[in-house]
Amino acid sequence: MTPPARGTNEDGPWPRRDARGTDRTLVHVQELHDAPLAPLTTFRLGGPAARLVTATTDAEVVAAVRAADESGTPLLVIGGGSNLVIGDRGFDGTALRIATTGFHLDGTRLELAAGENWSDAVARTVEAGLAGIECLAGIPGSAGATPIQNVGAYGQEVRDTITEVVAYDRTTGETVTLTAAECAFRYRHSTFKDQPDRYVVLRVRFALEDAGGLSAPIKYPETARALGVEAGDRVPAAAARETVLRLRAGKGMVLDPADHDTWSAGSFFHNPILTDEAYAAFLARVQDRLGPDTAPPAYPAGEGRTKTSAAWLIDRAGFTKGYGTGPARISTKHTLALTNRGEATTEDLLTLAREVVAGVHAAFGVTLVNEPVTVGVSI
Asked: Which cofactors does this protein require (predicted)?
């Protein structure tokens, strides 16, 4: 029998193993079986996937999603793996790794493919003299993940600059374009998190600012102090980016294979947002426990709501930097990061996370919510 020409696939939509069990790649799509997933996450934790497909174009992403949906196969979409906790048993389905590339800058309009490295993309916009995402430097992961949880840090959020998100809608089977309003962005949330099984992000579009090489107005007090300016001032965009990178590195929030404090998902817990009633009860418990003059961090979070600091809660509940004796511990640089010291399992990590959640609730009556997505496990 004459073998099929390259670019066709008589075995179906994706590669299959040959009679000797060797993985084959067809139409640029790589498929592996019983594939390790831990190396694809910043935690370096988790068991294997029954099947791992790597897609390098939007068409391949869509075809992989459709193939999984049509066959009823569970699907796990992986970008940079920086916000993912995978169970030790792994994933019994198709893991789709999005490895698409594309950085297109037209004036102040930027379009990124979902698989583009986010931190590298930020650097390129700063090099181009544009403002709007310079304070989001050093955040690990891919561009496609940024709208999902409305990534933010140091006074900027992607909702400030995102204009559109192109996604594959698994409900309708069509590629759609969502406006920023349709994305329904709010603190670490979006319509993509509201409907986690509906959309697969393909491309993200931004409107940046040409401020003559200057940054957007500096909003975050820590950044302003480090730069020696007042909140609201502008500085060279490159200086803002470099300062944020230094601040993040000091907290173990810039990936470094040699530094186990960065073997994490960054901030593991959301900063709690409390109603006025809940905040009053929280404040009473804080002052009862720590003294009547103690004032916890408090930031306006919309009418009738106040945001407080998860890191402050964790520290004041007794979980200080470096807490733990096992292979999963709190970072030695930042109490909000849970880390793999090199030999941890996912269960080790979850045990630590549950201890922190229980301890904070016992101390202050506030229940912390994990920020990373969990697969096959729960806190």
From this structure: FAD
Residue pair 371/152 in contact (Cβ under 8 Å)? The answer is no
Judge contact between 265 and 42, C-beta under 8 A.
yes
Whole-angstrom Cα distance, residue 190 to residue 150? Answer: 7
Mark whether 188 is an active-site residue.
yes
In CATH, what number is assigned to the domain containing residue 46?
Answer: 3.30.43.10
Task: Give the pLDDT means over successive 10-residue stretches in the chain (379 positions).
Answer: 30 34 47 96 97 97 97 97 96 97 98 98 98 97 96 96 98 98 95 96 98 97 96 97 97 94 96 96 96 94 95 98 96 97 97 98 97 95
Residue 150, by phi and psi: left (phi above 0), alpha (psi -120 to 50) or beta? left
* pLDDT for 73: 97
Q: Tokens representing 322?
A: 């470096």
Catalytic residue among 51, 159, 170, 188: 188
Catalytic member of 116, 267, 329, 331? 267
Query: 51 lies in which domain range?
Result: 25-98
Please report, for the domain that includes residue 171, its CATH number: 3.30.465.10
Active-site annotation holds for 267: yes
pTM: 0.88
Under a CB-based contact definition with an 8 Å cutoff, are residues 155 and 223 in contact? yes
In a shared domain, residues 162 and 222: yes
SS3 15: coil
The pLDDT value recorded for residue 201 is: 98
Query: How many Cβ atoms from other residues are within 10 Å of residue 53's Cβ?
Result: 26
- Please give the Cα distance from 170 to 66 (Å, whole number): 8
